[in-house]
Amino acid sequence: MKFMRIGTRPDNFYTQQAVRTTLSDLPSDLTICVNNVTYLLHKFPLLPKCGLLQRLCSDSSRFCVELHDIPGGEDAFELCAKFCYGVTIDLSAHNFVQAISAAKFLQMTESVDKGNFVSKLEAFFNSCILQGWKDSIVTLHTTGTLPEWSENLGIIRKCIDSIVDKIVTPPSKVRWSYTYTRQGYARKKAGPPKDWWTEDIAKLDIDLFRCIINSVKLSNKLPPQLIGEALHVYSCLWLPKSSSRLDPETSTTATVNKKKRQLLETIISMIPEDKGSVSTGFLLRLLSLAKLLRVSTVMEAQLIKKCSLQLEDATPNDLLLLSSIDLVKAVVDSFMIRWTGPNDLVTKVGQVVDSYLQIVARDANMPLHKLVSLAKALPRPQHDNLYKAINIYLKEHPKTTKEEKKQLCSVIDCQKLSAEVCAHVVKNSRLPLRMVVQALFFEQDGKPTATNESKLQTQPYNRHKSNRQVGSGEESSVVHSTRQKVQPESKHKSRRKKVVENGREILMESRNTGIQTGEVETGEARGEAVVARHGGGRQALVASHGGGGGRQALVASHGGGGVLRMVTCRWKETIFEDG
């Protein structure tokens, strides 16, 4: 950074008994009070250069002057006093604003004395400060101590213009020093990076930063991605990086959080409208902070919309930046409202959401209804990843009730499971038996052909549930009412394994004759079974026990009909009968 040195005499100002004075053979004839500091000085060096002191000391009897309202206080006044005495002083971007404001206040202009302090300061400002990059940044930063004086003297506007001119300069023509501490960057001969300017301006106050960004936008010389990068760097410096950095709400922190909220709202308002100008992860982080800092509803809705417009670019870790699963649901809902295609877009979002569900499913405090709500928020062409999330939840929450398991598994469509996942479902003891039986069909039958799908859709049972939900509605309540008391877990698993193994053999035989699905209810029908008819005989396999002695059976009957049916029956014993 550049500086200007004025004067040749050594510094002879010193403090004696809380009074500032100079080494001189002449006694002091002028007392000047600035705030809490008293100066014992002389009229002959000060009055010829200070128009204000000339006016105040026009009465020769007056020896004491109070200058409590001088901009910059005692430090700025002392710079002006030393200039009058010819003492060596160093001027730089750090003290320029204070010096020129005080000099203007004391009327140290060319009309009072040729070569006066103001003219020298203006020359330094125009030839050195405005020509430098960091000099302009530092000077603009120091205007915060004297905003009114800086605005009136045109310092702020001139500094901003100088900074913007350098920002829009092609990187290949950048010849000044700058700050760039990003990880993974090594200075190369190719020149500075396109965002070389972002870290230096991030040190400014938000109002000054906003003025620079708006001026850069109006120039139309930089892509919106660079504007977004500047906003990202600024927010990383001034906003908390996570909710854990926020102080609890108290009377002391209320003012601090209010300033953070205003800062956040200003940053949000500056985000370019262009899609992709900022990363999805950055938007989600801002949304999480917006919720915690309680920004306005309008601002929160605006941010949710921005997040949803580029949700397909998010990663599971990006979604974890949000403070709650409710916010993720809000963003997904906003995405679905605006989504009109293509299908691969919603598929990509579905994969991200399913991966996120697999992570949050491990949370011991995750409410089941919120997990289900998010899972149902968007369609998916395949449900393998969704099944993995549900399986993780059941594994991490062993106390999940049967009804809760049914509710959780209702989001799975077995027709959208791969053969490998169907095989895992059949062996999964955590799932409701109905889902296992349903998966058993698709495991043995493979992926249904278009003809089979149309047949399946024409049957009453599938029209009722489309094979999506297992165990719900009126049929579920009937089965539940006929089941017997739950057997010990080891016995239940053994019976379940036998059901699956025998069911698989029956279904393998039935596939050779063609399969249909339907619903039959005869006699004292109270349970549920799968039936395949093969001629004169039939086989029945006990699937589960219900209340009142009823049992569910997986039944395969051999005959010419070749029809696989869902029927409800009441048996007191396991059935293996002919005819």
TrEMBL record:
Residues 449-498 are annotated as: Disordered. The keyword Zinc does not apply. The keyword Oxidoreductase does not apply. Residues 470-479 have a biased composition (Low complexity). Pathway: Protein modification; protein ubiquitination. Residues 195-446 form the NPH3 domain. Pfam families: NPH3. Residues 449-461 have a biased composition (Polar residues). This is NPH3 domain-containing protein. It comes from Ambrosia artemisiifolia.
